[in-house]
Amino acid sequence: MFKYMLANPIRGQTIEFNDNTLSKMAGQQGHCAITKDELVIGKLKCIHQTPKELGGSDNYKNIVIVSSDVYKLIHEEDERNQLIYMKRIGRSIRNKTALKRLNKLRKTIGNSKIMNI
């Protein structure tokens, strides 16, 4: 994973962001920040907890790494599509702790909470 991330920095992001994503991957031990599922190359997203346009920075504390489906669920507003992503992610998104972490990121970007199903 680290070899891949070193060879493929995220285009359009700062050196600080790319450096901190490597550190964050180590800190998260290769797991999604929301579901705690193991991350897979090509199916992960490095994101700002508080987006830069809302005053966030590229520092370590503001970066989290999530699976691609969790990323889509953070941004999805349509309830039917939310259910599709939740089904793809599986049981790990349905526990209260994961849902709380997810909703915190959704709230930061102005999306409504997803209720437990």
* Cα-atom radius of gyration: 14 Å
Give me the count of strands: 2
Q: Kindly state the percentage of residues in helix.
A: 40-55%
Enumerate the spans where pLDDT stays under 50 for 5 or more consecutive residues. none
Number of helices: 5
Structural shape? globular
Regarding quaternary structure, how should these chains be classified?
single chain
Counted up, domains total 1
Mean pLDDT: 94
Strand content: 5-15%
Beginning-to-end CA distance, first to last residue: 33 Å
Across the major sheet, the strand order is 1-2
Largest sheet: 2 strands, antiparallel
Question: Structural class given helices, strands, pairing?
Answer: mainly alpha
Order of helices and strands: HHEEHHH
Write up this protein.
With 117 residues, the protein is mostly helical. It has one domain (2-108). The protein has helices at 2-7, 15-27, 68-75, 79-89, 96-108, and strands spanning 44-48, 63-67. The chain has a two-stranded antiparallel ribbon with strand order 1-2. Helix 3 (68-75) packs across helix 5 (96-108).
Essential attributes:
5 helices, single chain, 117 residues, 44% helix, mainly alpha
Brief characterization of the structure:
The chain has helices spanning 2-7, 15-27, 68-75, 79-89, 96-108, and strands at residues 44-48, 63-67. It is mainly alpha-helical and 117 residues long.
Topology record:
Elements: H1 2-7, H2 15-27, E1 44-48, E2 63-67, H3 68-75, H4 79-89, H5 96-108
Antiparallel strand pairs: 1-2
